[in-house]
Design a protein that fits this description.
- Helices cover 45% and strands 14% of the residues.
- With 233 residues, it is an alpha/beta fold.
- It has a seven-stranded parallel β-sheet with strand order 1-2-3-4-5-6-7.
- It contains ten helices and seven strands.
């Protein structure tokens, strides 16, 4: 639901992929996820080539960020060298999910794909958003689903509306409710890495309060770590 960045959706050449891989390796990065956007239940062939190129030139732990995929695509991704499957539940409430994503896959599809990926011995990274109107019971259901998947990485994120989107007039997540959901996940699940996408501003402190031990860092975006470097921490 974020404002579209044309560069984000542009197909990368293998030369660009190799160049970016080198930048990440030199920066000391060990794990990376490849955002795809919704491409359907089958992954285009060029995506396999990108993963193979990254693994050929590095030892990066590669996660593919997708919606629901069929078993054939997941198997081909694993054969190409993908280490893990990042697929969020968005909301553990199917009705809320359909409002948030009115087209494309379903919550049931995503849960099924995550189970398939787990069966293929891919590492699992999942989670859901807080602040879309879910109840405490919905949060409990979501955590129970995630517990069954035994994810190695987890993202419990606050809903933050973006300008020029259909959900711009929705209220953002209550930060304390979000932090509470994160804290429950931290204690209830089997100690996965818990990630926050809030690296600055008001929500950042609540992510730390909730138990986040990892933060997304995007090229060109001010991050928590850049702030720490400037402060000498």
């Amino acid at each position: 639901m974020k404002v579209a960045d044309p560069c984000f959706y542009r197909k990368r050449t293998l030369k660009e992929v190799k160049a970016r891989t080198q930048v990440l390796v030199e920066a000391g990065i060990q794990r990376v996820f490849l955002a795809s956007g919704w491409m359907g239940y089958e992954v285009p062939e060029f995506y396999y080539d990108c993963i193979h190129s990254i693994k050929e030139d590095s030892n990066l732990d590669v996660y593919g960020l997708f919606g629901a995929l069929n078993r054939t695509s997941l198997l081909n991704l694993k054969r190409a060298g993908m280490d893990g499957y990042l697929c969020g539940l968005e909301s553990p409430n199917e009705a809320i999910y359909k409002r948030f994503r009115p087209a494309g896959d379903t919550l049931t599809d995503r849960i099924s794909a995550l189970k398939t990926a787990k069966g293929l011995n891919l590492k699992i990274w999942s989670g859901f958003l807080v602040g879309l109107g879910e109840t405490d019971e919905d949060v409990s259901v979501g955590l129970e689903i995630l517990r069954g998947l035994e994810p190695e990485s987890l993202s419990i994120l606050p809903f933050t509306p973006f300008p020029n989107t259909e959900m711009w007039d929705e209220n953002p997540a209550n930060p304390l409710k979000w932090a509470r959901a994160m804290a429950i996940a931290r204690t209830y699940l089997r100690k996965p890495d818990l990630f926050s996408d809030q690296t600055e501003g008001f929500y950042q402190g609540y992510g730390i309060l909730g138990g986040a031990n990892g933060f997304y860092s995007f090229p060109g975006k001010k991050s928590l770590f850049q702030s720490l470097e400037r402060s000498g921490a």
